[in-house]
TrEMBL record:
Domain NADPH-dependent FMN reductase-like: 3-140
GO molecular function: oxidoreductase activity
Protein name: NADPH-dependent FMN reductase
Keyword Oxidoreductase: yes
Keywords on record: Oxidoreductase
InterPro entries recorded: Flavoprotein-like_sf (IPR029039), FMN_Rdtase-like_dom (IPR005025), NAD(P)H-dep_reductase (IPR050712)
Length: 178
């Protein structure tokens, strides 16, 4: 049994990326999985001036939680083709604490949006950037048109093709972290 940490890069209280992460967590059986809300880790906007004041305790706490996990499930939201400023700020603080804060972490990387591309630009950006911090992206999945393909009432994927694709990605990830 592996220890898995799951979170979304969004700071929205109604985050569909958080809903996707929660669904994926429910599908990862036989593992110790914790779903976090990054909004519980308040940090000032990163700058060199702020860093001179020391590292936020919340950044150090989140880094510790990541270091104790064997693997991560991250769902990135998309703002204008990239990460949200909220998620970038968290990555900035974590990478200043330890440039390789994701070293040895196998990651299932996902994204979703209300649109047909499913946050694909942010997902592609993440696949290029996160390995710079030591991450090993094991699998990735863009989930398009969230509100058309997911039932929030029943917490289920309603599009059979997407369901099969997502289950395959989850299965591959689970196999890779054994």
């Amino acid at each position: 049994m592996k220890k898995i940490l799951a979170f979304a890069g969004s700071n929205s209280s109604t985050s569909i990326n958080h809903k996707l992460v929660t669904y994926i967590a429910s599908e990862l059986k036989d593992h110790d999985i914790t779903v976090l809300r990054l909004t519980n880790y308040q940090m000032p906007m990163y700058s060199e001036d702020e860093e001179k004041n020391g590292f936020p305790a919340m950044a150090m706490g989140l880094k510790q939680e990541i270091s104790e996990a064997d693997a991560l499930v991250i769902s990135v939201n998309e703002h204008n083709g990239s990460w949200s400023a909220f998620f970038k700020n968290i990555v900035d603080w974590l990478s200043r604490l330890d440039r390789n804060f994701l070293a040895g972490k196998k990651i299932l990387l996902t994204s979703t949006s209300p649109g047909k591309r499913g946050g694909l630009s942010s997902l592609d950006y993440s696949k290029n950037v996160l390995p710079r911090f030591g991450a090993e992206i094991v699998e990735s999945f863009s989930f398009p048109s969230f509100y058309e393909n997911f039932s929030e009432e029943t917490n289920t994927v309603t599009n059979e093709t997407l369901l099969l694709g997502l289950k395959q990605v989850i299965s591959t990830f689970a196999h890779e972290i054994q």
